[in-house]
């Protein structure tokens, strides 16, 4: 069976399955409210894919972490997100104690692909087979994107359905890309793009500057919420 990992949520000990997201673990324990807005309104999971920012929580003292994008790998301490808590960088800047961040690592792949979904992986695979050095960045902990999203926990777990044909096609594409020599970097959030071809990504807390000869942006699509009276922006 999959290992369970204890997590602290607002002082209560919960147990999560290794590999699942924090959002999935909290929902499994009946937690619906993840944060509070400036006006005191409760918010919880909406999109489940890192876009809406409604599931922001504090993890081990770091604010504004997306619960749906945080994979459970070790014991963590979680608090509901609160609008009144300032970001550490803002606090440090205001007090004059922020000394800046270290110079980021610089990497220069021949081809940088942003997004490890079906389109990004397919492009990376073809380019690598043609002799091009390819690096793929994806903000998730697993490749596949939304369409080929892979299981976070083992299919042998009770209540977990086995991989279907779509999962298997995705796994085969990921494996083909890796075997061809494609470098896939997970947990990579690309937050800056500059002329002529320079991109900055945060990878597990450290900054990396990419200067590729060419770049393919394959960030995919996401659902758009239907606007109805009473909803927030």
From TrEMBL:
Name of a matching Pfam family: Pyr_redox_2
Name of this chain's protein: FAD/NAD(P)-binding domain-containing protein
SUPFAM superfamilies named among the record's database cross-references: 2Fe-2S ferredoxin-like, FAD/NAD(P)-binding domain
Record lineage: Bacteria, Pseudomonadati, Pseudomonadota, Betaproteobacteria, Burkholderiales
Endpoints of the signal sequence: none
Species assigned in the record: Caballeronia mineralivorans PML1(12)
One GO MF term: iron-sulfur cluster binding
FAD/NAD(P)-binding domain mapped to chain residues: 111-230
Domain of life: Bacteria
Keywords from the UniProt entry: Oxidoreductase
């Amino acid at each position: 069976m999959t290992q369970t990992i204890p997590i602290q949520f607002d002082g209560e000990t919960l147990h999560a399955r290794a590999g699942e997201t924090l959002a999935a673990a909290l929902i499994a324990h009946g937690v619906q409210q993840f944060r509070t807005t400036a006006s005191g309104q409760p918010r919880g999971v909406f999109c489940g894919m890192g876009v809406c920012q409604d599931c922001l929580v504090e993890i081990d003292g770091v604010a504004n972490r997306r619960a749906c994008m945080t994979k459970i790998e070790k014991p963590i301490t979680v608090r509901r997100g609160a609008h009144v808590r300032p970001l550490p960088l803002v606090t440090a800047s205001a007090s004059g104690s922020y000394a800046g961040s270290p110079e980021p690592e610089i990497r220069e792949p021949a081809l940088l692909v942003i997004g490890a979904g079906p389109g990004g992986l397919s492009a990376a695979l073809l380019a690598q087979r043609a002799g091009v050095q390819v690096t793929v960045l994806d903000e998730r902990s697993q490749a596949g994107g939304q369409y080929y999203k892979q299981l976070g926990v083992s299919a042998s777990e009770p209540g977990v359905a086995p991989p279907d044909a779509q999962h298997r096609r995705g796994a085969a594409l990921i494996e083909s890309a890796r075997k061809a020599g494609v470098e896939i970097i997970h947990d990579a959030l690309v937050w800056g793009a500059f002329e002529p071809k320079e991109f900055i990504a945060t990878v597990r807390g450290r900054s990396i500057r990419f200067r590729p000869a060419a770049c393919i942006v394959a960030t995919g699509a996401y659902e758009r919420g239907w606007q109805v009276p009473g909803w927030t922006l």
